[in-house]
Amino acid sequence: MAQSEDALTQTSPLDPPITPEIFQHLVRLAALELDEEEAEYLRRELNQQLQAIRDLESIDLATDLPITSHGVPYSPESRPGLRPDRSEPSDKADAILEQAPEVEDRFFVVPDIPHTELE
Known about the structure:
Radius of gyration: 24 Å
Strand order of the largest sheet: 1-2
Largest sheet: 2 strands, antiparallel
Low-confidence stretches: 1-13
Shape: flat
Structural class: mainly alpha
Helix content: 25-40%
Order of helices and strands: HHHHEE
Strand content: under 5%
């Protein structure tokens, strides 16, 4: 049986869902252009993801539980060593630079991103 949207977005009073007004504010800050249907879909998805995070946070864990990496607890003795840093020249730099819309002194030219100053 599928859960309703209301069941998926229920939160405690301390964690209210993202309202359409707050979402529109975030959309403006991110300089996104969304139609009404896209905005509502993304707002619902974001609320569901935040609820999943809240659900994970609510799981009781023992305070002495060791930290793991990818589910595998590594002791200092069994931990794999770090790989050495290596610089390897590539013959593809020119081919990559040729694909860029604009290059200056072998650097990509990136247009300025319009923004407004926050108060």
